[in-house]
């Protein structure tokens, strides 16, 4: 099985590249942002709880995220593996994920980290905000908060996988297909 962590700051292109990876390798998409937005749309208690954090661009507490991911992994029966998009976002989430997978005799194949300069990230997020309807894509201070949270809380997750010899960095600027080709070369080595 292929279990890939697609990593990078907000606006790095994780969602776009995930779609292409899913198609090529027949993976199950596990985007915690998408799962929270689904709960939000359905008005569940989890959605209401997450909204407070999401609207501000802050992280939803680890135990909430981990519980949701664990349920999703356990309810997914078939497929070639998972693509984790926007998760894990803290070292605590990364080590909890390792435990959940280990219990199922699974493991992370590798992390692919998309590298994109901050000015391009902000431009992409603002552009996406015109059509995504996402509150957190439209407000300059929320965009700033998300990038700061990424640098402070999420970047150490790359170190976690580097320590396991599983980190590959990919330049995340160029055409979607160019970037995807570089990602696929890495995945083909797993
Ligand atoms: P995303 O769609 O991945 O940019 O996520 C949107 C928002 O959902 C984030 O700004 C967080 O508020 C929340 N979120 C998504 N994934 C996580 C996660 N793994 N840990 C904590 N909060 C998350």
Automatic annotation (TrEMBL):
<feature type="binding site">
    <location>
        <position position="32"/>
    </location>
    <ligand>
        <name>AMP</name>
    </ligand>
</feature>
<feature type="binding site">
    <location>
        <begin position="86"/>
        <end position="89"/>
    </location>
    <ligand>
        <name>AMP</name>
    </ligand>
</feature>
<dbReference type="GO" id="GO:0005737">
    <property type="term" value="C:cytoplasm"/>
</dbReference>
<feature type="binding site">
    <location>
        <position position="146"/>
    </location>
    <ligand>
        <name>AMP</name>
    </ligand>
</feature>
<dbReference type="GO" id="GO:0044209">
    <property type="term" value="P:AMP salvage"/>
</dbReference>
<keyword id="KW-0808">Transferase</keyword>
<feature type="region of interest" description="NMP">
    <location>
        <begin position="31"/>
        <end position="60"/>
    </location>
</feature>
<feature type="binding site">
    <location>
        <begin position="11"/>
        <end position="16"/>
    </location>
    <ligand>
        <name>ATP</name>
    </ligand>
</feature>
<comment type="function">
    <text>Catalyzes the reversible transfer of the terminal phosphate group between ATP and AMP. Plays an important role in cellular energy homeostasis and in adenine nucleotide metabolism.</text>
</comment>
<dbReference type="GO" id="GO:0004017">
    <property type="term" value="F:AMP kinase activity"/>
</dbReference>
<dbReference type="InterPro" id="IPR033690">
    <property type="entry name" value="Adenylat_kinase_CS"/>
</dbReference>
<keyword id="KW-0545">Nucleotide biosynthesis</keyword>
<feature type="binding site">
    <location>
        <position position="128"/>
    </location>
    <ligand>
        <name>ATP</name>
    </ligand>
</feature>
<comment type="similarity">
    <text>Belongs to the adenylate kinase family.</text>
</comment>
<keyword id="KW-0547">Nucleotide-binding</keyword>
<dbReference type="InterPro" id="IPR000850">
    <property type="entry name" value="Adenylat/UMP-CMP_kin"/>
</dbReference>
<feature type="binding site">
    <location>
        <position position="93"/>
    </location>
    <ligand>
        <name>AMP</name>
    </ligand>
</feature>
<keyword id="KW-0067">ATP-binding</keyword>
<keyword id="KW-0963">Cytoplasm</keyword>
<dbReference type="InterPro" id="IPR027417">
    <property type="entry name" value="P-loop_NTPase"/>
</dbReference>
<feature type="binding site">
    <location>
        <position position="37"/>
    </location>
    <ligand>
        <name>AMP</name>
    </ligand>
</feature>
<keyword id="KW-0418">Kinase</keyword>
<comment type="subunit">
    <text>Monomer.</text>
</comment>
<feature type="binding site">
    <location>
        <position position="134"/>
    </location>
    <ligand>
        <name>AMP</name>
    </ligand>
</feature>
<protein>
    <recommendedName>
        <fullName>Adenylate kinase</fullName>
        <ecNumber>2.7.4.3</ecNumber>
    </recommendedName>
</protein>
<comment type="pathway">
    <text>Purine metabolism; AMP biosynthesis via salvage pathway; AMP from ADP: step 1/1.</text>
</comment>
<feature type="binding site">
    <location>
        <begin position="58"/>
        <end position="60"/>
    </location>
    <ligand>
        <name>AMP</name>
    </ligand>
</feature>
<dbReference type="GO" id="GO:0005524">
    <property type="term" value="F:ATP binding"/>
</dbReference>
<feature type="binding site">
    <location>
        <position position="174"/>
    </location>
    <ligand>
        <name>ATP</name>
    </ligand>
</feature>
<dbReference type="Pfam" id="PF00406">
    <property type="entry name" value="ADK"/>
</dbReference>
């Amino acid at each position: 099985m292929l279990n890939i962590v697609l990593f990078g700051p907000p606006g790095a292109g994780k969602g776009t590249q995930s779609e292409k990876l899913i198609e090529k390798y027949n993976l199950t998409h596990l985007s915690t942002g998408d799962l929270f937005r689904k709960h939000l749309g359905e008005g569940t208690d989890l959605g209401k709880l997450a909204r407070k954090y999401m609207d501000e661009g802050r992280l939803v507490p680890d135990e909430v995220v981990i519980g949701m991911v664990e349920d999703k992994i356990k309810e997914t029966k078939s497929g070639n593996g998972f693509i984790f998009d926007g998760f894990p976002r803290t070292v605590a989430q990364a080590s909890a994920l390792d435990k959940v997978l280990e219990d199922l005799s699974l493991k992370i194949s590798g992390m692919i980290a998309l590298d994109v300069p901050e000015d391009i990230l902000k431009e992409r997020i603002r552009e996406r905000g015109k059509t995504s309807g996402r509150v957190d894509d439209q407000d300059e201070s929320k965009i700033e908060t998300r990038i700061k949270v990424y640098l402070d809380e999420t970047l150490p997750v790359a170190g976690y996988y580097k320590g396991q010899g599983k980190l590959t960095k990919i330049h995340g600027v160029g055409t979607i297909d160019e970037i995807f080709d570089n990602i696929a070369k890495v995945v083909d080595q797993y």
